[in-house]
């Protein structure tokens, strides 16, 4: 193509026919691909909502357990399973969040480029690829086979820690990397020590992102089923104690009723439990966004 | 209280790279000293050794001596954190803490060093913002984010933050290079006021700026890329800009190179 010079008149023509066709094809392709991606998501959501919403409208669902309710009977709720899911996730978070955040601080602020940091990073990569059933069996071997402890909710939480830790650590790491060095230097130049700089300047700057990572990690572990199946018996009644052998949870509640035929009242409860789980996870995401928003200062 | 800086036979290295060679100079209290020279000549590096900020880069080290009123900054048992409390710094790009409000930004140095008294903090914030000529513009929105200000205001906020801890020396690393002329003028006026209380050392690429604000000018140069930077000449600003001793200095300030 020859460059236009001063004496050739400028022509701002529309693209040729072939280019218009190519452009339209690309637009159609991209749009269709997006729609195809959305379809399964929308399908799952609408099915779960349509089949499960009715039970969620009654207070019974949120306040009662499944004690004494057979699949043939109406009634009962998911309180026991919600308590179990939330409790196990919180115990897991109480262990995984400090470990993950402090680990990320070590990797970014202290160990950058050192051998030990590369080693730890490599291990975290491996850990993030571990299937949940392997994590569950590892905890089973450690707690039950070696130490002779019983199956319990706390064992589940420990298996979940193995799954949540890499998520929290990696996302915190990425967020700390985004904090510009100029802020660290500004703090050092005020005569502030390294640790205080990290706690008061670096982490608050990355706070919104760290919270998002924690919430994503929580959402992941709440839906895990393998550790529940292997490490704790599903209880239809309410149990708050993390050390006794039974506890309900939403994934195992779904699993326990999944072979019910559609005419059974237990069938609807499976869909309702699935919807409840989705709602809790979505609630966490909304919460993460709100926390991120309220911890950011207004500029004007 | 301003302090005198004595640099004696200072060599600066980044790992195996010799960045600055054999610098000796004296900076008197309550004066402004400007470092000028082409890019890569080590003037920012030298500035950063005056409060041990260069150590943030792994492998950076010095040979020689930097004294603040006779105390060696690189002596045995000297804590770099304590040095930086006395020798403050303003950077090339404004870098207010994004998680903090205007008030908290200015108060951060005191707070992070353990000052909790609300009255002390409020006084310090007001005094520092006034000293940085920013008080009138921000007094009604101290609770808003510091990063919401314009570039020039942000840089003055950073200066207020630096002087809130009452350092005895203030180092400025091209503080106006990211600013428009009006903000630059505001900062230059400010430097003139600051020297009544502090010892100021400023790195600048702008020779007019060096001529306007400084009492003493140091010209740095390097023989070739990859060679260490050297102090070519230091003297009263008037002399450096009218009648320098070295041909290289004259070539640089008259715009023949650099």
Keywords:
heterodimer, A: 300 residues, MetI-like fold, 71% helix, B: 258 residues, alpha/beta, Rossmann fold, globular
Summarize the structure.
The complex is a heterodimer of chains A (300) and B (258). Chain A has eleven helices and no strands.
How many structural domains does the protein architecture of chain A include? 2
Count of DSSP helices of chain B? 10
Which sheet architecture does the biggest sheet of chain B show?
A: 10 strands, mixed
Mean pLDDT of chain A: 90
CATH architecture of the largest domain in chain A: Orthogonal Bundle
Mean pLDDT of chain B: 91
Distance from N terminus to C terminus of chain A (CA atoms, Å) equals 50 Å
Describe the fold and architecture.
The complex is a heterodimer of chains A (300) and B (258). Chain A is mainly α and 300 residues long. Chain A has two domains: 17-57; 79-294, MetI-like fold (Orthogonal Bundle). Chain A has helices at 17-56, 59-63, 79-110, 115-128, 132-146, 153-178, 181-188, 194-222, 226-231, 250-257, 265-294. Chain A is globular and about 90 Å long. The two termini of chain A are 50 Å apart. The mean pLDDT of chain A is 90. Chain B is α/β, with parallel strands linked by helices. Chain B has a domain at 5-96 and 168-253: P-loop containing nucleotide triphosphate hydrolases (Rossmann fold, 3-Layer(aba) Sandwich). Chain B contains ten helices and ten strands. Chain B has helices at residues 43-49, 80-86, 102-112, 118-131, 135-138, 151-164, 181-194, 207-213, 237-242, 247-253; strands spanning 5-14, 17-27, 32-36, 60-68, 71-72, 87-90, 169-173, 199-203, 216-222, 229-236. Chain B has a ten-stranded mixed beta sheet, with helices on both faces. The longest helix of chain B is centred in the middle third of the chain and has 14 residues, at 118-131. The two termini of chain B are 36 Å apart. Classes of the chains: A mainly alpha (300), B alpha/beta (258).
């Amino acid at each position: 193509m020859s460059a236009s010079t001063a004496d050739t008149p400028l022509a701002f023509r529309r693209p040729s026919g072939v280019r218009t066709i190519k452009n339209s094809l690309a637009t159609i392709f991209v749009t269709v691909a997006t729609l195809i991606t959305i379809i399964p998501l929308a399908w799952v959501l609408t099915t779960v909502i349509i089949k499960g919403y009715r039970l969620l409208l009654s207070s019974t669902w949120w306040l009662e357990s499944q004690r004494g309710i057979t699949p043939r009977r109406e009634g009962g709720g998911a309180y026991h399973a919600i308590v179990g899911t939330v409790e196990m996730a919180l115990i897991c978070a109480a262990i995984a969040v400090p470990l993950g955040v402090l680990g990320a601080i070590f990797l970014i602020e202290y160990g950058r480029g050192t051998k030990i940091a590369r080693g730890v990073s490599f291990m975290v990569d491996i850990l993030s690829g571990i299937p949940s059933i392997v994590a569950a069996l590892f905890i089973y071997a450690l707690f039950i086979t070696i130490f002779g402890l019983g199956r319990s909710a706390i064992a589940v939480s420990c298996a979940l820690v193995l799954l949540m830790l890499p998520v929290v650590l990696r996302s915190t790491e990425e967020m700390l990397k985004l904090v510009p060095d100029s802020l660290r230097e500004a703090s050092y130049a005020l005569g502030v020590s390294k640790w205080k700089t990290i706690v008061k300047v670096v982490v608050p700057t990355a706070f919104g992102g760290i919270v998002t990572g924690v919430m994503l990690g929580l959402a992941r572990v709440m839906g895990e089923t393998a550790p529940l199946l292997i490490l704790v018996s599903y209880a239809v009644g309410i149990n708050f104690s993390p050390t006794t052998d039974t506890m309900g949870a939403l994934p195992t509640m779904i699993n326990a009723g999944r072979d019910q035929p559609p005419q059974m009242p237990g069938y609807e409860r499976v869909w309702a439990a699935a919807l409840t789980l989705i709602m809790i996870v979505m609630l966490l995401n909304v919460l993460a966004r709100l926390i991120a928003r309220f911890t950011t200062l207004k500029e004007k | 209280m301003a302090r005198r800086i004595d640099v004696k036979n200072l060599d600066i290295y980044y790992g195996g790279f010799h960045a600055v060679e054999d610098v000796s100079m004296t900076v008197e209290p309550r004066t402004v000293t400007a470092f000028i020279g082409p890019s890569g000549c080590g003037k920012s590096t030298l500035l950063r050794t005056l409060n041990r900020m260069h150590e943030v880069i792994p492998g950076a080290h010095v040979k020689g001596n930097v004294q603040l009123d006779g105390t060696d900054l690189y002596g045995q048992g000297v804590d770099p954190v304590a040095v930086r409390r006395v020798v403050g710094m303003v950077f090339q790009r404004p870098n207010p803490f994004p998680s903090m409000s205007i008030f908290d930004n200015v108060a951060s140095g005191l707070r992070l060093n353990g000052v909790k008294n609300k009255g002390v903090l409020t006084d310090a914030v007001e005094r520092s913002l006034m000293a940085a000529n920013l008080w009138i513009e921000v007094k009604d929105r101290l609770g808003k984010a510091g990063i919401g200000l314009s570039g020039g205001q942000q840089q003055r906020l950073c200066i207020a933050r630096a002087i809130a801890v009452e350092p005895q020396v203030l180092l400025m690393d091209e503080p106006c290079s990211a600013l428009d002329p009006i903000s630059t003028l505001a900062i230059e006026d400010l430097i003139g006021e600051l020297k009544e209380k502090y010892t100021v050392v400023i790195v600048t690429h702008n020779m007019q700026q060096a001529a306007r604000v400084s009492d003493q000018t140091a010209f740095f140069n390097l023989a070739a890329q990859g060679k260490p930077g050297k102090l070519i000449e230091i003297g009263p600003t008037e002399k450096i800009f009218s009648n320098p001793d070295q041909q290289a200095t004259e070539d640089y300030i008259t715009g023949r190179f650099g």
